[in-house]
Amino acid sequence: MDISRKKQKRSVLSRYWPWALVIIIVGAGANYLWFLTQADYSIDRNTIVFDEVKRGEFTISVRGTGLLIPDNIQWLSSNVEARVERIVVKPGKIVKKGDLIVELSNPQLAQLLEETRWELEARSAESKAAQVAQESALLDQKAEILNAQLNYESSKLKQDAQTELFQKKTGIISKIDYEKTRLETIQLKQRWEIQQQRLLKMKENILAQNNARDARLKKMQKTLERAQQQVDSLMIVASIDSVVQEVPIEPGQRLIIGGNIAKLAKQDSLIAELQVPELQIRNVAVGQRVIIDTRNNKVAGIVSRVDPAVVNGNVQVDVEFLNGLPEDARPDLTVDGEILITELSDTLYVNRPIFAQSQSNSAFYKLSEDGNFAERISVKLGQGSINQIQIIDGLKIGDKIIISDPSSWQTYQKIRLR
Fold first, then answer.
1. CA 370 to CA 22: how far, in whole Å?
2. Which CATH number does the domain 107-232 belong to among 2.60.460, 1.10.287, 3.40.50, 1.10.10?
3. Domain coordinates in residue numbering, the chain
4. Is 90 in contact with 244 (CB distance < 8 Å)?
5. What is the pLDDT of residues 296-327, one digit of tens each?
6. How does pLDDT run across 134-163, given as a tens digit for each residue?
7. CA-to-CA distance for 416 and 418, rounded, in angstroms?
8. Are 249 and 42 in contact (CB under 8 A)?
9. What number of CA atoms fall less than 13 Å from residue 223's CA on the CB side?
10. How far apart, in whole angstroms, are the C-alpha atoms of residue 159 and residue 181?
């Protein structure tokens, strides 16, 4: 016997759920297509670097790399033409003032010294002989003066006696004898005076001759001293307590006058020579504080000089140490230097994006609130340091921007992060 069954009616949900699923899928696809059309370019977020805008104290500094250079460098050079006989000290050796570094030789200088010494001895002997002759001539002249004085006084006595007799008119003395005696007395007096004048002139002449001989002797002594100095200069010695940095010669080499022999540098007198990019040098000034990093120590310094010239895109900045040298300091040691320009308080700043320049208007990619997009905006920048830069306008605290290199997508206004 057949039993008839009633057909059950399908529920509304069972009848329409396929359509609902289709609608959901179509809506999701449309939303996804709309999401994709929001940006012309997409990039993996793991390949880029972000940073958030912050507010607070901001230190402006400039970095440069360089070397520790001796502040007191002296080159020892050759004062004569010579041959290198022996190198006593090699580079890196610590020497005291007066220590022998290099020994030179020049036989001609030694011979010249001996000849000059002999010449000086000969001239000294000639000078003494001339002095003896002058003294003898001086004594002869004094004797002549004495004879002239005696002759005059004798004639004067005779004249006085004849004058007395002649005035009494006794007839013993004739007028002719009297006048003859008077004229002879006058003549002898004049001869005595002339001999005295000759003595004065002789003394002046002797003094002039002595001065001339002394001058020639001094000249010869100077010649001897110079010859001795030239011979002494064959022994090259350290001029200061220092470290020998270079000895650019070798035994047997011929040296000309002025040729460099050794380079000395004081071990305890070093400065840092930093090379700062020309784009960052405008705010660097003498007197600013510097932190010098030797990789093992950090020490404080101060800017002592800023070179006015630009060489290969860099400007040299000299830094003096404030509290002594670090333990590992030595000439030509590579160091990094951070020059502290100024400090700003309560300002917006962000880690420095690639290619961001101080005091300029730049375009950065700012992240959306949901973090899925980044849109290019214009930002006004202020002062910048090594790793950070000040924000003047265009961003606010909490905003996030891309700070890595945007060169591969910088032509797009908006990018999508996946």
1. 28
2. 1.10.287
3. 41-69+269-417, 72-103+234-265, 107-232
4. yes
5. 888 999 999 999 999 999 999 999 998 888 77
6. 888 889 888 988 998 898 888 888 888 878
7. 6
8. no
9. 17
10. 6
